[in-house]
Design goal:
Elements: E1 4-8, H1 16-24, H2 27-32, E2 34-39, H3 41-51, E3 56-60, E4 72-77, H4 93-111, E5 117-120, H5 125-130, H6 138-146, E6 152-156, E7 161-164, H7 171-176, H8 180-196, E8 203-207, H9 222-236, E9 240-245, H10 247-255, E10 261-264, H11 267-278, E11 279-282, E12 287-291, E13 294-298, E14 304-307, H12 324-338
Parallel strand pairs: 1-2, 1-5, 2-4, 3-4, 5-14, 7-10, 8-9, 8-10
Antiparallel strand pairs: 6-7, 6-13, 11-12, 13-14
Length: 340
């Protein structure tokens, strides 16, 4: 049997419902998994109608009621949106709450073993907080409601996979967090994740912190004191790792196939090359043609994969959002569930 995936609708005022519908109108999606949306059936009906999609919405109250048939979108209906007050492209507390309860239901189903993995469409942090749910985003919600203390963000597209030693902290604090135990921890996480993707002996490149990986100590001491000792210990334990690799060459080498995964020392060191590769801006239309890439939270007791883009309120409701990242998210979640 193909794995069952719970796909959240995201903030309904954004492009989440649209990209979910688009992904679920592609037959190949149903050949790899059994998808089910958590959210509001009325919103999904509205999104399908906006797109002119030839699909039926099957509102359910239990996973056992899902049909998992191409041409029908199963929606675990939480009845969380007042359509008379609904307006696409606008920040609204009811939409922030709808995104939140959609996530919580997906987590509950995964923790109970009723679904094999979860995929999340984008939420809006302002709307989330206006609704009274004071979290920084998906990752923190998942960590809180699964009781997870140690976790990390992995960015992935078809060829480039990046994990971070630190993420949402100042650059000054990020430098202070470059410590041997944390480097080892995230390297273990990305190595295990690559195995879930079907890579038996993943090659991991570990970035330096400083320019040229400090050039033998000329530009800093973190490589010698923290990063290299972590690399040596990982090698002694049998991990296939290389580093510290100068950060200005690491990601180009990974993109060309030298590494199956990369360890970045801080947020922008990993995010900038990843988004340069995956985000495609159309200067003629002034809009993003596509945003390829997914965000995977590692360290959780359940599978969580998300698109690596936002709600795109500026194009919500226009039917032009690309589902490429959602399709890739479903593909990664499926592979992880099958190899779990």
């Amino acid at each position: 049997m193909q794995p069952i995936l719970a796909i959240t609708m995201g903030d309904p005022a954004g492009i989440g419902p649209e990209i979910v519908v688009k992904a679920l109108t592609i037959k190949e999606t149903y050949e790899k998994c059994r998808p089910m949306v958590t959210g509001d059936a009325k919103v999904m009906e509205w999104a399908a109608k906006q797109l002119g999609a030839d699909v039926k919405i099957n509102a359910i109250a239990n996973v056992s009621e899902a049909k998992f048939e191409y041409g029908t979108i199963d929606v675990y209906d939480l009845n969380c949106i007042d359509m008379e007050q609904f307006e696409p492209g606008k920040v609204a507390p009811q939409c922030g709450n709808a995104a939140f309860v959609s996530i919580i239901k997906a987590i509950e189903l995964a923790m109970a073993g009723e679904v094999d993995g979860t995929v999340t469409a984008p939420l809006n942090k302002e709307a989330l907080n206006l609704a009274g749910h004071h979290f920084d985003g998906h990752t923190e919600i998942y960590a809180h409601f699964t009781g997870t203390k140690k976790y990390a963000m992995l960015l992935a597209d078809e060829f480039l996979r990046v994990i971070h030693v630190s993420t949402h902290v100042s650059l000054r604090e990020a430098c202070d967090r470059v410590k041997k135990p944390r480097i080892i921890e995230v390297t273990e996480l990305i190595s295990d994740a690559c195995k879930q993707f079907g890579i038996d002996n993943p090659r991991i490149g570990i970035a330096g912190l400083n320019p040229h990986a400090s050039d033998g100590g000329l530009f800093g001491w973190e490589e010698e004191k923290e990063i290299l000792p972590a690399v040596e210990e990982l090698r002694a334990r049998g991990f296939n790792v290389d580093g510290p690799v100068p950060p200005d060459t690491l990601f180009a080498k990974a993109r060309c196939g030298k590494y199956d995964g990369c360890v970045a020392m801080y947020h922008d060191q990993g995010h900038i090359p990843f988004k340069v590769v995956g985000f495609n801006w159309n200067k003629e239309t002034g809009k993003m043609d596509s945003a390829q890439g997914v965000n995977i939270t590692l360290g959780l007791p359940i599978i969580r994969v998300s698109v690596d883009h936002g709600t795109a309120f500026d194009v919500a409701g226009q039917g032009i959002a690309s589902p490429s990242a959602m399709l890739l998210s479903i593909d990664y979640a499926t592979r992880m569930a099958k190899n779990k």
